[in-house]
Amino acid sequence: MPLKPGARILAFDDTPFRRGVDRKTLIIGVMTRGPIVLEAVFKEEIQVDGIDSTQKICKIANSHPARDQAKLIILHGTVFGGLNVVNLRQLHEETARPVASIVLKPPSNIRLLAAARSILGSSSRIEAVLRAQPPFQKVFLRKRPIYVSYLGLEREEMIRVLRRLCILSSYPEPLRIACLIASALR
Fold it and tell me: How far apart are CA 170 and CA 180, in angstroms?
């Protein structure tokens, strides 16, 4: 079913943290109506290099007021709090909403897995999640490429929605707002 222009969007990013010092960081969620009307801000604590980012995003998405209103979930990448990887399939299934992960540069699973081996001593947990993720696809918005991994919408509908959400750049406005708020917090 196509998303209406004024549909509510949930967008998420994580706050900065200090590796080796901080054990926890925050996930910041914003709910907008359409691209620019900010209606709510959410936060949840996650473990740095942990396994709880998917669960915490589901908690926000399935809570009031987001539960009955948000029609799409957008993430800034799939890795939050260092190596805390979001499972897009699980997020899509547990929230019953379309989900999209957006990055500006092509993601490198090789670098991510090398970091996991270096920091965690093993990459098997992250490899299992990555195998279940839909691949990132290059999409041009406002003449610039972005990379999107998504579930729950057909490609053309996802592109149409993302174009509507991009106001001043090739980055969807709800996600840009979440990133601004997250970068201001520590």
Answer: 15
How many whole angstroms separate alpha carbon 25 and alpha carbon 8? 26
Q: Which domain holds residue 108?
A: 8-161+169-184
For 2: left if phi > 0, alpha if psi spans -120 to 50, otherwise beta; the answer is beta
Phi, psi (degrees; rounded to nearest 5) at 87: -90, 105
Q: Which residues on adjacent β-strands are paired with residue 13?
A: 28
CATH of the domain at 143: 3.30.2170.10
Using 70 as the pLDDT threshold, list the residues of the chain that sit under it: 1, 66, 110, 116, 122-123, 186
Q: Are 17 and 25 in contact (CB under 8 A)?
A: yes
pTM of the model: 0.92
